[in-house]
């Protein structure tokens, strides 16, 4: 099987990125992270990646006129490093066709709800406000529609009566780190088959 080379896109603190970096460094995921890209110069993810000796690049959206132009610049950075699998980890920009087409079925995202419930921002608070008893997180393939691509893996997290947005988010985040590592490991090991919306993962 060909080597799995990962590119991570992150806009924020980067805790999911950190979990992926650690799992690649320990050998749990048989892949290497070639680059971390961000649209935010001050993203904690960039600083953390650099501190770990990982190539980390800020691409300023203002330097590229349209979303497509920006996405082409991202793709160029990923291709230049031979990236075969892209992981969005708290990447807050919507992606265009220009980004998705070159990496068909090779772009993953993690979202802090049991999709298709509660797409978009503040998913954990949305779940709490709705009154669900099971919250959770989802790793899915990325398509044009936000938080809507085929589901790869999910983990449920029970909601407790005294939960706040913060306490629930913290428990979901713990599970996000485990789930994202498991899903990326499955891709790196070539155990994933995509058939339309149905994704199967061999043990
Ligand atoms: C996570 O909750 C992830 O599911 C969502 O954005 C958040 C990013 O957190 N897409 P972090 O930057 O990985 O800590």
Structure description:
It is a single chain. The chain is built from six helices and nine strands. The protein has two domains: 1-103, Formyl transferase, N-terminal domain (Rossmann fold); 109-203, Rossmann fold (3-Layer(aba) Sandwich), CATH 3.40.50. The two termini are 17 Å apart. The longest helix has 24 residues, at 165-188. A hairpin with a 2-residue loop joins strand 8 (192-195) and strand 9. It is of the alpha/beta class and 203 residues long. Helix 1 packs parallel to helix 6. It is globular, with a radius of gyration of 16 Å. A seven-stranded mixed beta sheet has the order 3-2-1-4-5-6-7, with helices on both faces. Strands 8-9 form a two-stranded antiparallel sheet. Bound molecules: 5-O-phosphono-beta-D-ribofuranosylamine. The site of 5-O-phosphono-beta-D-ribofuranosylamine (GRF) has 14 residues, from helix 1, strand 5 and helix 6. 5-O-phosphono-beta-D-ribofuranosylamine binds at residues 10, 12-17, 89-90, 110-112, 173, 176.
Largest sheet: 7 strands, mixed
* Small-molecule binders: 5-O-phosphono-beta-D-ribofuranosylamine
How many strands?
9
Shape, per Cα inertia axes: globular
Going by CATH, what is the homologous superfamily of the largest domain? Formyl transferase, N-terminal domain
The top level CATH class name of the largest domain: Alpha Beta
Share of residues in strands: 15-25%
- State Rg: 16 Å
Instruction: Please tally the helical runs, counting DSSP H or I stretches of 4 or more residues.
Output: 6
Q: Enumerate the strands of the largest sheet in spatial order, edge to edge or round the barrel.
A: 3-2-1-4-5-6-7
Q: Do you know the CATH topology of the largest domain?
A: Rossmann fold
Q: Compute the average pLDDT.
A: 97
Helix and strand pattern: EHEHEHEHEHEEHEE
């Amino acid at each position: 099987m060909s080597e799995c080379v990962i590119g991570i896109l992150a806009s924020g603190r980067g805790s999911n990125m950190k979990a992926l970096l650690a799992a690649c460094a320990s050998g749990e995921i048989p892949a290497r992270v070639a680059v971390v890209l961000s649209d935010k110069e001050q993203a904690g993810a960039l600083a953390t990646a650099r501190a770990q000796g990982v190539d980390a690049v800020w691409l300023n959206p203002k330097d590229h006129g349209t979303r497509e132009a920006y996405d082409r610049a991202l793709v160029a950075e990923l291709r230049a490093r031979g990236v075969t699998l892209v992981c969005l980890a708290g990447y807050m920009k919507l992606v265009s066709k220009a980004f998705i087409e070159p990496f068909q079925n090779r772009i993953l995202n993690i979202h802090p709800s049991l999709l298709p419930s509660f797409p978009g921002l503040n998913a954990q608070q949305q779940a709490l406000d709705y009154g669900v008893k099971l919250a959770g997180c989802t790793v899915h393939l990325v398509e044009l529609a936000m938080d809507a691509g085929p589901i790869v893996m999910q983990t449920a997290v029970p909601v407790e009566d005294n939960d706040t947005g913060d306490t629930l988010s913290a428990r979901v985040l713990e599970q996000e780190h485990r789930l994202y590592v498991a899903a990326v490991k499955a891709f790196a090991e070539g155990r994933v088959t995509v058939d339309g919306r149905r994704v199967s993962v061999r043990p």
